[in-house]
Amino acid sequence: MFDPANLQFDRDGLIPCIAQDAASGEVLMMAWMNAQSVSRTLQTGRVTYWSRSRAALWVKGESSGHVQELVELRIDCDRDCLLALVNQTGPACHTNRRSCFYTSIREGSEQTIMQPVEGG
Amino acid sequence: MFDPANLQFDRDGLIPCIAQDAASGEVLMMAWMNAQSVSRTLQTGRVTYWSRSRAALWVKGESSGHVQELVELRIDCDRDCLLALVNQTGPACHTNRRSCFYTSIREGSEQTIMQPVEGG
């Protein structure tokens, strides 16, 4: 059986988790998990991070409704990074954009390549 | 002009960088960069991480030939995570698998879902 204790957490007890849209392959965001949030994510099927600013479990979309339904959780070779394939409801980013990675460096300058979702 | 100093590095001066296959959308790996490796990556078009174990710049594929040609570098909303869209030569993982995320948690157990590339 999988045990979150066998992951490699950093000195703060956290592991980065990349959320990828299971259908489109778009990388939506990266946030952090602790052992408890990994367990909750697997138990509930609802992606649950650890909020470093609030120092609390963060059920993604709990207040905004922009939930992430877990399709599959994967572990990398070093066991120190997770990849969550998700069904994302609405925008993943708090700026109302589909993805947090909406800034691109092009010809040496930052460009915004994605707009907020209307009524998101 | 973009200045790596305007990114949010952690207390070790590092920022996580997700490498995604620009053509297929597959998430290949996650590794770390410091300001110098961000600059080198943009200058050379060859993805260059910071090896925490060797405490040195790590030009991906320099010894293996499994290089990552940078297509585009993106920054997330908090400026504390990078997404590199890349053209990956050969496998990205040191286990000779295309991606480092070859272990999946299915029905509570870890399963290997990807095999090493032959002759990779």
Automatic annotation (TrEMBL), chains A, B:
Quaternary structure and partners: Homodimer.
InterPro entries attached to this UniProt entry: PRA-CH, PRib_AMP_CycHydrolase_dom, PRib_AMP_CycHydrolase_sf
Required cofactor names: Zn(2+); Mg(2+)
Protein location: Cytoplasm
Taxonomy, superkingdom: Bacteria
Predominant location category: cytoplasm
Protein name as it appears in the record: Phosphoribosyl-AMP cyclohydrolase
Single GO term (MF): phosphoribosyl-AMP cyclohydrolase activity
Gene: hisI
Cofactor binding annotation: Binds 1 zinc ion per subunit. Binds 1 Mg(2+) ion per subunit.
Known catalytic reactions: 1-(5-phospho-beta-D-ribosyl)-5'-AMP + H2O = 1-(5-phospho-beta-D-ribosyl)-5-[(5-phospho-beta-D-ribosylamino)methylideneamino]imidazole-4-carboxamide
Keywords: Amino-acid biosynthesis, Cytoplasm, Histidine biosynthesis, Hydrolase, Magnesium, Metal-binding, Zinc
Family statement: Belongs to the PRA-CH family.
Pfam families in the cross-refs: PRA-CH
Residues that hold Mg(2+) according to the record: 76, 78, 80
Species for this entry: Paracoccus stylophorae
EC class name: hydrolase
Main function: Catalyzes the hydrolysis of the adenine ring of phosphoribosyl-AMP.
Chain sites annotated for binding Zn(2+): 77, 93, 100
EC number: 3.5.4.19
Coiled coil spans: none
